[in-house]
């Protein structure tokens, strides 16, 4: 791996360590006995605090790089851009469900567009972290020094495949609910894990295909490089391999065309 990517990946871990400390402190302090309406205000405050912290560290250590995040949008310009998703899985965070993460990725301009070259997903409430750098493979562990490589599965037929999807309402609003139902009838099993986790499980080979009809850049960029470096495929629902396209389909690569075929807008009509 090129030296600058090695440095960037190590720095992404430093950023994630800082984010985890703040997020876990806020998470443990939330009223986890919520039974009616979650307090999204306190969650938004935590998200903004973490994004502000990461932006400050990037400004000091990578002042020439642009930064994109939900709180302040895009700041800066140039050939490199860090994408920050301070809390992926806000609703889970609000209800005390441990399935949430900070996602950090680095993109560089390539042939008129951006391509992810470093990605890290840290889920401290699950005691899990995943990361990858272009042409260097994908890994999981608590740190760089305690890492194991991850690879996608070798499942090659849909009747043997496990499919993870986002909320049913999201697919219904997108007009593809019939597509998802048809695919669900074809595969071995389905689960609605949602948020960042299905993409990490595709990378680990414990599920085989997953998709979302609507995503922000922060939801996609880190997962894109981790899944592809694990040997899988990551595209939009239109089949194009762009990390900022607003939708995502991820697979072990062997099943990608079939996944896209089922989720094509025309297929559900």
Q: What descriptors fit this protein?
A:
8 helices; alpha+beta; Fructose-1,6-Bisphosphatase, Chain A, domain 1; five-stranded mixed sheet; globular; 269 residues; single chain
At a glance:
The protein is 37% helix and 25% strand.
Strand-helix topology:
Elements: H1 3-29, H2 40-61, E1 66-69, E2 73-75, E3 80-88, H3 90-95, E4 101-110, E5 113-123, E6 128-133, E7 138-141, E8 147-149, E9 162-165, H4 168-173, H5 177-186, E10 189-191, H6 197-204, E11 209-212, H7 217-229, E12 233-235, E13 248-251, H8 256-263
Parallel strand pairs: 1-3, 9-10, 9-11
Antiparallel strand pairs: 1-2, 3-4, 4-5, 5-6, 6-7, 7-8, 11-13, 12-13
Structural class: alpha+beta
Number of helices: 8
CATH superfamily of the largest domain: Fructose-1,6-Bisphosphatase, subunit A, domain 1
The name CATH uses for the topology of the largest domain is Fructose-1,6-Bisphosphatase, Chain A, domain 1
CATH C-level category of the largest domain: Alpha Beta
Strand order of the largest sheet: 2-1-3-4-5-6-7-8
Helix content: 25-40%
Task: Categorize the overall geometry.
Answer: globular
The proportion of strand residues reads 25-35%
Report how far the terminal alpha carbons are from each other.
46 Å
Number of beta strands: 13
Integer count of domains: 2
The largest β sheet comes out as:
8 strands, mixed
Radius of gyration over alpha carbons? 18 Å
- Elements, N to C (H/E): HHEEEHEEEEEEHHEHEHEEH
- pLDDT < 50 runs, ≥5 residues: 31-36
Mean pLDDT: 89
Return the CATH architecture of the largest domain: 2-Layer Sandwich
């Amino acid at each position: 791996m090129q030296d600058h990517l090695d440095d960037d990946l190590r720095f992404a871990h430093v950023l994630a360590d800082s984010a985890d400390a703040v997020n876990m402190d806020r998470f443990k302090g939330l009223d986890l006995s919520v039974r009616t309406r979650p307090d999204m205000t306190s969650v938004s405050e935590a998200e903004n605090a973490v994004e502000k912290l990461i932006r400050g560290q990037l400004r000091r250590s990578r002042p020439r790089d642009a930064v994109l995040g939900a709180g302040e949008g895009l700041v800066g310009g140039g050939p490199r851009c860090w994408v920050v998703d301070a809390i992926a899985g806000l609703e889970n965070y609000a209800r005390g469900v441990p399935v949430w993460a900070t996602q950090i990725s680095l993109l560089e301009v390539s042939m008129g567009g951006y391509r992810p070259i470093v990605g890290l997903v840290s889920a401290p409430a699950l005691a899990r972290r995943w990361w990858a750098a272009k042409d260097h493979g994908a890994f999981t562990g608590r740190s760089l020094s305690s890492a194991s490589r991850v690879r996608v599965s070798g499942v090659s037929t849909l009747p043997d495949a496990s499919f993870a999807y986002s909320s049913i309402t999201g697919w219904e609003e997108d007009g593809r609910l019939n597509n998802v139902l048809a695919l669900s009838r074809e595969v071995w099993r389905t689960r609605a894990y949602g948020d960042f986790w299905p993409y990490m499980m595709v990378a680990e080979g414990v599920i085989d295909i997953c998709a979302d009809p609507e995503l922000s850049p922060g939801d996609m960029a880190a997962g894109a490089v981790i899944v592809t470096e694990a040997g899988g495929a990551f595209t939009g629902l239109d089949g194009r391999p762009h990390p900022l396209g607003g939708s995502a389909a991820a697979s072990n690569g062997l099943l990608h065309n079939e996944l896209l075929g089922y989720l094509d807008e025309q297929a559900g009509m």
